Known about the structure:
The protein is mainly α. The chain folds into two domains: 15-117, DNA polymerase, domain 1 (Orthogonal Bundle), CATH 1.10.150; 145-311, Intergrase catalytic core (hpI Integrase, Chain A). It has 14 helices and three strands. It has helices spanning 15-27, 32-52, 72-77, 80-92, 98-117, 145-153, 162-175, 179-183, 211-220, 248-262, 271-285, 290-297, 302-305, 312-321; strands at residues 190-191, 194-198, 204-208. The protein has a three-stranded antiparallel β-sheet with strand order 1-2-3, with no helix packed on it. Strand 1 (190-191) and strand 2 (194-198) form a beta hairpin. Helix 1 (15-27) packs antiparallel against helix 2 (32-52). The radius of gyration is 24 Å and the shape is globular.
Amino acid sequence: MKYDIEIINNKNLPQYLNEFLNYLTVIKGKSENTVEGYKIDLIMFFRFIKYYKGLTNKEISFEEIPIDDVDENLIRSIKLSDLYAFISFTEKYRNNGTYARARKVATLKSFFKYLSGKAKIIDENPTLDLESPKINKRHPIYLTLDESKILLTSLDETNKNYKRDFCILTLFLNCGLRVSELRGIDIDKIKGDTLSIIGKGNKERTVYLNKACIKSIDDYIPLRDTEKVQEDEKKALFLSNKNRRISVRAIELLVKSHVKNSGINKDKCTPHKLRHTAATLMYKHGNVDIRSLQQILGHENISTTQIYTHVDNEILREAVKANPLSDE
């Protein structure tokens, strides 16, 4: 029997970090990107702890500090003050903003909760009183309806990748997919007007396709040349010029290029901003309620979806103007 789950056993990492990463993958079902983020944060944390406690040669660079020798005794010695020292280090010496520091706090809380609750390595969890930096909610940056139309009509039809790129942008703007979800689309998962995708946390969900999406897919599929594509990637909907499943980076670059060429004045327009655009257009122009939008976007918590209610500001403005005393 073949198993798709690869057990993590990196000899350069502490035993308990390997075990934690496997727990996130196998038990919690976290995505590869999420697990990688946890790993990067904890590698930095352990390097800092060794440096901070004078357990390493300070003449070697920070990135070269070995952490494979981190043992139970060192883990048990970590106090709340050490955690705050680490968060301060990430701000002052790593230029981490509020979001990056908040993510590291979440990583530490998850790791030490595992050590105390599942692994039973520590008796007391030092992160219980660890506070996260306050994050001010930001309105998502998105394209307007007119800008979205300009983007779609601005593509060069003579370009060999025109149909592919048009299809990619159409799916982003109509379905609100994450870039990893779009990259992972397989042809055999498209059934009529439905598409099955693997979303965040390896959770499968159904995406419904409208006429524009179906047409763009139907126009693109006949042009896919799979002759030189490896057998295990032939089912990938979107292929690169290197005859592989298209990469996230390639998608990011083509989005940036097409937005720039369209003349739309939007700095750093990413696939995630196109996801914001789809959500905003559905909420603002499609009268989609917030719960339905949550399902469409694959948000686990409704609070994440509520950032799109900012579009109600225009409705509120019109409501105030409609007050019969407005002209008095």
